[in-house]
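Repro:
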Amino acid sequence: MAAERGARRLLGTSSFWLYCLLLLGRRAPGAAAARSGSAPQSPGASIRTFTPFYFLVEPVDTLSVRGSSVILNCSAYSEPSPKIEWKKDGTFLNLVSDDRRQLLPDGSLFISNVVHSKHNKPDEGYYQCVATVESLGTIISRTAKLIVAGLPRFTSQPEPSSVYAGNNAILNCEVNADLVPFVRWEQNRQPLLLDDRVIKLPSGMLVISNATEGDGGLYRCVVESGGPPKYSDEAELKVLPDPEVTSDLVFLKQPSPLVRVIGQDVVLPCVASGLPTPTIKWMKNEEALDTESSERLVLLAGGSLEISDVTEDDAGTYFCIADNGNETIEAQAELTVQAQPEFLKQPTNIYAHESMDIVFECEVTGKPTPTVKWVKNGDMVIPSDYFKIVKEHNLQVLGLVKSDEGFYQCIAENDVGNAQAGAQLIILEHDVAIPTLPPTSLTSATTDHLAPATTGPLPSAPRDVVASLVSTRFIKLTWRTPASDPHGDNLTYSVFYTKEGIARERVENTSHPGEMQVTIQNLMPATVYIFRVMAQNKHGSGESSAPLRVETQPEVQLPGPAPNLRAYAASPTSITVTWETPVSGNGEIQNYKLYYMEKGTDKEQDVDVSSHSYTINGLKKYTEYSFRVVAYNKHGPGVSTPDVAVRTLSDVPSAAPQNLSLEVRNSKSIMIHWQPPAPATQNGQITGYKIRYRKASRKSDVTETLVSGTQLSQLIEGLDRGTEYNFRVAALTINGTGPATDWLSAETFESDLDETRVPEVPSSLHVRPLVTSIVVSWTPPENQNIVVRGYAIGYGIGSPHAQTIKVDYKQRYYTIENLDPSSHYVITLKAFNNVGEGIPLYESAVTRPHTDTSEVDLFVINAPYTPVPDPTPMMPPVGVQASILSHDTIRITWADNSLPKHQKITDSRYYTVRWKTNIPANTKYKNANATTLSYLVTGLKPNTLYEFSVMVTKGRRSSTWSMTAHGTTFELVPTSPPKDVTVVSKEGKPKTIIVNWQPPSEANGKITGYIIYYSTDVNAEIHDWVIEPVVGNRLTHQIQELTLDTPYYFKIQARNSKGMGPMSEAVQFRTPKASGSGGKGSRLPDLGSDYKPPMSGSNSPHGSPTSPLDSNMLLVIIVSVGVITIVVVVIIAVFCTRRTTSHQKKKRAACKSVNGSHKYKGNSKDVKPPDLWIHHERLELKPIDKSPDPNPIMTDTPIPRNSQDITPVDNSMDSNIHQRRNSYRGHESEDSMSTLAGRRGMRPKMMMPFDSQPPQQSVRNTPSTDTMPASSSQTCCTDHQDPEGATSSSYLASSQEEDSGQSLPTAHVRPSHPLKSFAVPAIPPPGPPTYDPALPSTPLLSQQALNHHIHSVKTASIGTLGRSRPPMPVVVPSAPEVQETTRMLEDSESSYEPDELTKEMAHLEGLMKDLNAITTA
């Protein structure tokens, strides 16, 4: 296939260049017909080229006179030179023996001494030039008409007349139309000289304008047409002196309808007479013509209009208007402009093979629409089964044979003239390739039928050709692959077929290679066809199969379509349809069924008809209908006719215009607005509107004005001040005026007021509440010089924006109905005009309760104008509901109490939905219209509260806004990263940095957490970055123990309940260089840059310079105090155990819950943590209950809870504690269990209240609760309060408990110091309190190894107590109110059983040993 396409391109390119050379060398410009071309040689065969053969000159229509000579020009180009012959009226002329007609050397026809008489007209007629080249073909020229002017005959002659000086006169002289060019005038037997004042019209009439005494005399017209001149009768024209009295205005000559061809000149005659002398003006289609500035429009003497070089735009109706100051008369005439046929698309030359189907395309235009006929080699093509006219003008030739070669011409003809264009068809041998790609004139059935491009073995004949399906009009053929190519995947097939006894064969190709079936369509019933199949491969076509004879099925003898179906409108409501008897009736026609349907609907109606015509009545006016007819015989319905469409006649409108409104502009004008009548009632094209208005006091004096049909408003000016007027409007069609609207009144202003600004505030507002209504009264603004067009009353419960009512500017009170009893309403009043609404005035009122019967009290306002606004408002929609569908879509539904119970809308009402959000506060309402009881609002913002209200409008009436409905769209993942990310170094802490940021601009929901990513390699994979989780209400975070003089890159990611948002751009920060203060190992283990003791007091910032000796002394003091405190705690505990009650057990359980239930319970599935996480050998697991209230939103990346999530528990929890501890141990990793058990047995550890710990050390990054009184913060478990805060093993256990339940992306993290588990905080020396409690800190601990080997895996660290941090986001809920926390803690009281105390004592002993080891170190 590729080689074949390449050959086609090569052939096409070569032929194109040779064709261009031929055109440049030999083609005359503008000639039409066949074009030259060439093609390269195909292997073993030559390609014939298209031969240039066309007319250089064609004959044109000619007017001659008797006895003169005529030449009809014709010249054709070809090589060899063509033979020229002539046809007259379709018959060849024998010029050899003709002594008057001879052929000139160039091919023109010369006729000498033209013969023409009443009974002998041998030379007049239609001539055609015929050019023939032997062995090539024949072409024929356009048809030229030779007209011979007849003998002069006067149809009207001059008559004696008189004219007043300065007026106009005409003298008639009408002769044969063909002799008009030969007419001239004489005055007193002398040739009359024509000028601007005296002209001859194309009809021969003489026009004299502004007559003078010299125009008097004897006039006659003369016809000189080659023979002796012929004179008309003489007539005397008398010029009378001006009588100085008026005379009637009359037309001496009126314009008459004219038909002209584009490019001709036309004169529209119009001459009027009267005293005073009239002036003439012209209009076209109701538009005045400017004859002074136009180059093509000239006003001739007497007032006639001359239009030169007529175009199609000049067609239309022309009005001649004569006016002499006393009266006006007018006359009109229609100018029709015609156009000769022109070719939009000419036929093109075609190469083809035998059996192909081709189409010659021909598109023409003209006015009237031209008819098209086709000629082949000079002979008319008669349509048949194989020569068909398709798409009105194109010629389709089916099943080409060799004799179809030649020249084909498309001849277009209308009343104005004719034109021809042609093309050549060359049929190539099958072994010759078509030179170019298949042109557009080849049908799709033959585009694949191309010649071979290479040499090689050809396929044998296809096997087993059978007709698998035979119908009346189609046959399906199937076959097997040729024996030479049993697979046949690359073979294409051509099926040749013909009627039996017909030599012309057609071809149908398979659609794709390898297909072995084809369906032949458009066959005739009960007809024998001969089929054969041929296979093609890349080398060419192979052998043909044996002929297969198949006969189509006979068709049931049903009637054919009824011919000549016509329909015409008989009236605005009826259409008459006519038709004829089917040509193939196949028996007696019993009856007809007429189907008809309104355009735009799908409901077809039918009626039985026994005759050949029927009139359908009761149709809609000015509506298009389609009709078809089906004939019935004894076998049933026949073939339907094609649809015929026709529109009923127009009529006057049956309804008045809609929505008439009046707007007083000032003291002298009122603007009227309206809408057209409903489309179903217009009954035609609205051509205009009639406005009638009158003073209300003088109803008989009515003024009318007309406006165009496209105009929907009109300003009525010149009215009286302070006067009331009535207005009504009616619509017009060409049939007349429809019904008018009701009278509508408006009063002009007493004086012209200012409307360049909004009205001022009303001067007063009073409200009187009743049970279900409030009476509102007011007085207008004090400044009476500003226009007030009405008042807007807003009201609602607690807000005046729920409902708004607008009333007339004359209104002074209004009763707000349908209110709720005992409800507080806020009411606002604003005056408005066309500029906008003025400043509101507010008032509030509480409606009375139901029991109040005083509503019968009357409230009367002595106002001059008290009617309610007209029209009365409709009831607002009720039950407005907002259904949230997604993050940006809400469906609004409502009910309409003014509809029937089934809530079906049957009229033209529509609903307006408005919505807005209060963020920002100045957001404007958005509106949308709906015709159903619901509307889908899209394009909303995620996680945003919207309010919705609905109003209904029907014609001129509208309701107030309904009660509002609210809906908050669903959340969406953040679509923008946190912004304004900055990194700064902490003062005095070169290894600590502070990261600050702002929430995302498109959070799309409540931000529940942030993750800070940082790395020293900006190009590292994101899972290799260190992560720091931060709670959602924090916008700053500290990171400690960074490497000095090192560039770090930071990114931040936000999340909400729907997931994680995008990361911010990386921000670079280089840590400061190392300073000389402090040596290695000279400082105590860091407990956090912002450590703060539980008790309030003045503390110096951690890290203030203190000597090691002072620090050790402080530690000894702390340890001593701790030991004394523990002893006191133990004594109190022993005393408390003897007073244990069930109530105390319940409180103890609550206390344990305070300390232990803050774990977040993650997924129900506990996944083994990655090996990357560290399990310190020195750490011990404290089995603590998980929170019984997991957060379902956070299951993807669980977030540990803090102690502020605690809720009191009852005794039922106590019995489950042991079970939970045991069940939890089963989920620990083996590594964790072994290392922890090796350090110390799995005994329960003493717990400290979490809130008493320094907030900055909380593994949950809990916000500070130090504002709580010390007594309340230490109420729970005070027996076991550890002033040293050394319960770090509990925190470590909780950290690992969280880790074991998560499966999260790992991150490179750094190991904690192994002694951090039991680090003792140093008491900072006194100093100014620079600690910032808002910054949670996460130190990255130094990488030191003591007695135990630590795996060299980097581990992220959270908190200051050496916990291993899980690589996951941490979200902290906001702290509860202080009172709530205090109450929870006061409900708890620590109480232990004796065996539990023994275990706790053992635990404390181990703890003390660790503390001693730290202090000695």
